[in-house]
Amino acid sequence: MKITHIALAALFLLPTAHAAETADQGMAMQPATQSASATGTVKKLMPEKGRVIIAHGPVEALGWPAMTMGFKATAEQIESLEVGSPVSFDFTSRGMNASITRISRQ
Ligand SMILES: [Cu+2]
Fold it and tell me: pTM value?
């Protein structure tokens, strides 16, 4: 999802938080794992890849603007979702590598 984030950041001329984070991943330094919560709308389910695409609102804890991105999710989490569902969820993020730890429909 790196390309998507760079493209979105450029497209909307948003603050550089995401771009800076993405750039960090290209260097030897590994970003720390952080936990955060967000709300959003399910855009796409990708059970074969263990991912769900969510249009999420701003995540202040991480300095993320609203955007559409992929999150790692378990088969059970993906099965509980439907495209178009509004959701609230918790996730851990290492740079732009985000994994859902809890998700529920709103
Ligand atoms: Cu994002």
Answer: 0.72
